[in-house]
Predict the 3D structure of the following.
Amino acid sequence: MTLYINRRFLAAALSSCALAQPGMAATAGSSFPVNATIPSTCTLSSTAMNFGEVGTAGAATSQTDSTSSITVTCTTGGAYSVALDGGLHSVAAQRNIQSGSNTLAYDLYKDPARGTVWTDVAAPVTGTGTAVAQVITVYGRIAAGLPFAASNGTPFTDTVLVTLTY
């Protein structure tokens, strides 16, 4: 039997074998974790409470109200609480402003109706951070009819410590 080989077929077959590469490429995979920690941080500021003139002739002639603002800015989702102490001149849990040896009682409240006294032992005001400044208003009142001595140019003062816990 005589075998006839087509030269063109043989040339094409040989060239395709020469071009084909054996499967030498390989791949491997790996992964790595990506982490970040965002600490809960807060800032705090407050404004003065100024009652102004509260009366004449040795008595507060009418109740005198004032406010102060506490501004808290905390990381989004961070819980915080704000507490107030009794002030520098507190006597038996009563806050007092003082001029020399003279005192005048006042109270701080959590609500504008002045129904919930903000004592130094009461539950603090709590919140959750939003990364935006949150304002807490402190409502103050000097009751009408309280006796006091004239300050003779020296104002009655007190200092209340604001404590932010987060």
